[in-house]
Specification:
alpha/beta, five-stranded parallel beta sheet, 21% strand, five-stranded antiparallel beta sheet, 8 helices, elongated, 237 residues
Amino acid sequence: MTSQTILLVEDEPTLRNLVARALREYGYNVRAAATGAEMWAMLENEGADLIVLDIMLPGTSGIDLLRRLRQTSKVPVIIASARGAEEDRIVGLEIGADDYLAKPFSVRELIARVGAVLRRRDGGDADGNAPSQEQISFDGWSLSPTKRELYSPSGGVVDLTGAEFDLLSVFLSLPQRVIGRERLIELSRTRVGDSSDRSVDVLVSRLRRKISLEEQAAPIKTVRGVGYIFTAEVRRA
């Protein structure tokens, strides 16, 4: 079986070599780039199963690279950056990062997060459990846990990031129940750096926009001071 390919985009040579070596020791095929231009060239030639992306790069920043990448690709991205402030994590979330690691980070933590993100992409949860085969529906929308896809009432596939999909899955598993923000983080396994109430609010806001129609608002209501409740009836088949 071919090992999964990680594209590491990091301009600092020592750290790039250290992280690449650690990922290879865990069985991943690793290709390393020092600039955005090298990243695009490698993606065009061979693609990748996951990208570990530094923010502070020469020329085009990692944030700009991710914003451009999300216009055409759903490849999972873990941002790794010395800029670990909440604002930076929020920006990463808003433009589609699947996880965020603040430097300095341990190799063990990086390996754990890479594995969790790849398992979510492949349809299992963070513990490696197989996805449910059932189809889940609400208000005309339909979610396939196996394919990790959401279909609109008109039948189109809705573009969800990994974090958005995990969050929606939690809401569908606990309909008509108030869920606190910390509990949402825990249940959805959404870990973007040190997740905060604000980062969850950003994710919920993004998810609402994607499951709203002109004639129908998203069935996610805010419970002031507590969290959120999914108000639609959920059916499983």
